[in-house]
Amino acid sequence: MVMRISIAVVVVLLAGCAPSSAPSDDDLAWVEQAVVSCAAGPTVRGVDVSVYQGSVDWNAVHAAGWEFAVTRIGDGYGGDSTFTTNWAGIRNAGMIRGAYQFWRATDDQNRLADIVIAAVGRLGPGDLPVMLDIEGASMQGQSAAFIQSQMNLWLSRVEAGTGKKPLIYTGKYAWDPSVQSAAYGSYALWIAAYGANTGGVPTSCPNTPMGWNSWSFWQYSSVGTIPGITTNVDKNLFNGDLAALQVLANGLTGDNCYGTEAQGCGNFGCGCVDHACNGVFCPGSGCTAQHTANCGAFGAGCADGVCSGGTAPGSGCTAKETVDCGHVGCGCVDHHCNGGAACAGTGCTWRETHDCAAFGVNCADHQCAGGYGPGNGCTGKETTDCSAQGCGCVDHACSGGTRCAGSGSTARNALDCGNFGCHSVDGLCSGGFCPGSGCTAKQTADCAARGAGCVDEQCSGGTAAGTGCTARQALDCQHLDAGCELGACTTPGGPVVVDAGQPRPAPEDGGAVGPPEDAGTTVGQPNEDLPMGGVVPPVVQLPAGAAPVTGGCSSAPGGLGLIGLLLLATARRARRVPKSGAATEVFLSRSAASS
Asked: What percentage of the chain exceeds 90 in pLDDT?
């Protein structure tokens, strides 16, 4: 929301960038609330001068720590008698130099621009771009549309003639009510904001005019003397260190942009390539054709001026591309939306995939996952797509579940479960010495269609070779002196009843003698209503996500519960079925405390 506020302004006649008359009260009647912008880091001190400063000892100015100076070419058609001396003196003192022209809206803009071009010629290394000085008196009562049109003529002609994109010097008080445009943010801003104007840097940072959210130069005071100048002088800061100022003054950057262009694009969070805003938060790769080719020679992509993606570290995407892909639920790889929850692809660069593979791990969404690493090795989209088919997802392929071939588990899952003598299906420890059949739903259904059971991912029992029992099931039945067939305990002497399909502790281990009220299921022969092993005990869920999967089945409730059960089973006393007479049902029940 834009707020309009009235302000009272103490107008100080500028010693350097000063018109012949001060801005009128009408010029200062209102401004728009704008961004308060402080320096981003180190700053460099400089001055701007005109005929009002008289003769200047530039060597003394430089020795006092002032690194740049800007001298006035003139006011409109009128010239400044000190320009030629100052222009040469600044350079001879080893300082970075610049020039400005006080601008007037009703003057012939071609003539004004030609005066500038004749004064400075083609700018070279060490020369700042020419500054357009636009203040309240510059407007001359003209409309915003007329002012903009005239400015555009001056800016384009001066840029073409001097070879560098001009700077714009202005204050919020002048720009917002008169120019009324946010379209000039690509020009580096030289802002005038004095605060109390005591000669020192104000404690508060300046409000930028519309179109800018940062400044390149800040004229913070018009009073006070410095070594080499005996009169009041305008004092300024450059928003950056000396190296950045030298880039601005020395012309083209490595991305084929003038320093002012790079500064202007930076106001929008963008890079600059070939004289246009490109990359970072603007469209484009942020790389020149040459830079892209240089990176490509090594199998890498290029993003925001650095080799990225492909064989190089990084995603190969600009900040804008990454944000845009994220908005549609995807990751970004090599300048394209890839992976994530909504896009095809692994979500990994060649480098990321290769680095993960060196450890036997796949890569998904820029992370090592699957294989012998944590995670399932699938992107969000792959996982969702496989789930819609009734399958799990392992290492970028549908696996397991009710409809897909495969175990539904990664190599890491299988290794962790194998440490406890178990198989792994659908990411769970199952079969072998763990609860469960060790088969996926699809494997179980496929074996059942052949009249067989399924054990440890193989058809077993029924029409197939084998008993149809896991090691866990066989062990449980053995402790009842029972056989095991298709996951059920059987004895020649009669049925053995188990509570919910799992052998109970013997009375000596705390179990009760005699049947409970619900006697459980009689399983003298295989009972299709009885799950494998009598019951599907609590499953052992392998941890998901980025955290390493550790402990395998030991992560079940009770810590090393499986190992404890095995030891308990070894010591458990069996309850035998009598050999003579009618078949006697033997009931094993849980203790009252556990029932």
From this structure: 67
Q: Helix (H, G, I), strand (E, B), or coil: what is residue 147? A: helix
Half-sphere exposure (Cβ direction) of 547: Cα atoms closer than 13 Å: 5
CA-CA distance, 351 to 316, in Å (whole number)? 11
CA dihedral angle for residue 10, residue 13, residue 14, residue 18, rounded to 10 degrees: 120
* Contact between 360 and 371 (Cβ < 8 Å): yes
Q: Phi-psi category of 325—alpha, beta or left, where left has phi over 0 and alpha has psi -120 to 50?
A: alpha
Taking the CA atoms of the chain, what radius of gyration do you get in angstroms? 41
Q: CA–CA distance from 53 to each of 99, 229, 346 (Å)?
A: 15, 7, 66
**Residue segments in the chain with a per-residue pLDDT below the cut of 50:** 1-34, 497-595
Of 51, 74, 46, 73, nearest to 61 (Cα)? 46
DSSP 8-state class, residue 355: H
Residues sharing a CB contact under 8 Å with residue 8, sequence separation 6 or more, in sequence order? none
Q: Are 392 and 398 in contact (CB under 8 A)?
A: yes
Rounded CA separation 24/15 (Å): 18
How far CA 21 is from CA of 75, 102, 135, 281, in Å, comes to 11, 12, 10, 42
Nearest to residue 50, comparing CAs of 22, 80, 79? 80
pLDDT in tens, 155-192: 999 999 998 999 999 999 999 999 999 999 999 999 99
Give the DSSP H/E element, type plus range, for residue 208.
Answer: none
Report CA-CA distances (Å) from 256 to 250, 262, 274, 414: 12, 10, 5, 55
Find, among 190, 187, 169, 188, the residue nearest to 237 by Cα: 190
The structure tokens 């002032």 sit at: 66
Calpha distance 333→256 (Å, rounded): 26
- Whole-angstrom Cα distance, residue 110 to residue 464? 97
The Cα–Cα gap between 70 and 44 comes to 14
Quickly tell me which residue has 């062990």 as its tokens: 475
Nearest Cα neighbor of 143 from 177, 171, 102, 112 is 177
Classify burial at 405, counting beta carbons within 10 Å of its beta carbon; exposed 0-12, middle 13-18, buried 19 or more. middle
**How do the domains of the chain map onto residue ranges?**
4-16+37-251, 284-369, 407-589
| Strands 496-498 vs 521-522: parallel, antiparallel or unpaired | antiparallel
Topology of 4-16+37-251 in CATH? Answer: TIM Barrel (3.20.20)
In this structure, are residues 485 and 461 in contact, taking their beta carbons and an 8 Å threshold?
A: yes
Phi-psi region of 563 (alpha: psi -120 to 50; beta: other; left: phi over 0): alpha
DSSP β-ladder status, 488-490 and 483-485: antiparallel
Q: Give the tens place of pLDDT for each residue, 230-274.
A: 999 999 999 999 989 998 898 767 788 877 788 789 888 999 998
